[in-house]
Amino acid sequence: MNEQKKGSFFVDTMVYTKRSIVTIIRNPLIFIPNLIISLFFLFVYEGGLSGISQLPAFEGANYLAFILPVSIVSAAIGGAGGAGQALVKDLENGYFSRLLLTPSSRLAIVLGPIIAGMLQLLIQTILILVIAYFLGLEVAAGFGGVIVVLLLTLGWGLAFAGYSVGVALRTKNAQSAQAGTFVFFPLIFLSTTFVPYELIEAGWLKIAATINPTTYLFEAMRSVFIDGWDAWPLVRGFLVIALLCAITITFSAESAQKAVSSD
Length: 263
Fold this sequence. Notes:
Blueprint: H1 2-26, H2 32-49, H3 63-79, H4 82-92, H5 95-100, H6 106-134, H7 142-171, H8 174-182, H9 185-189, H10 203-211, H11 213-227, H12 231-262
Helix pairs in contact: 1-6, 2-3, 3-6, 3-7, 3-11, 4-6, 4-7, 6-7, 7-8, 7-11, 7-12, 11-12
């Protein structure tokens, strides 16, 4: 009986994930503007700030490799947020309520758009990495380092998509759900965004960067881009990702339960 339930859960999850992916493909405006903005920032940061990599604190690191994680993470915030937007549409047109009447797992209904948002981000990240390669990116850890960056991106996308879906289920409003995703944008800039931690002068900004989970994601990605295989930044990065995923997926599951109770 348990095996049957597990099989049904995985089938349901695949079906809802496929539907969400088809929705994204049919509406390219969900992800194309976000991809363009992320690439625009990459070009601007690399073109306008690359000179500061000559400072001793950079230790000769390529500024493109230093700033690239910022472009990837910003793509995550805009891209994975589309999972919540798609769910809001289902809530507004009544489709989500009809799904709740089916015997499908409630968690599967929620995981569908979350996984689709995560996969969307993965494709965006691959495109960004390819363009960065043509701009001169060299990965110190080699191809294995690229795989690590993609795994970190998948984890971040899963965490943020879970948050986006949870907000959508709580608010049931497109504008509120979109505003909820914007809360994460300050996290990008309250971190080691443009310079290493050692070059941050404001005390309050150093404190913000220290408690900011984005800092550890940046450091993990930069370690494979610039330093090669350095275990500690990677361990911290994956631990932060695991914690965020646990929090946001739980948040989205509880939000789905409340949505069930109110419908």
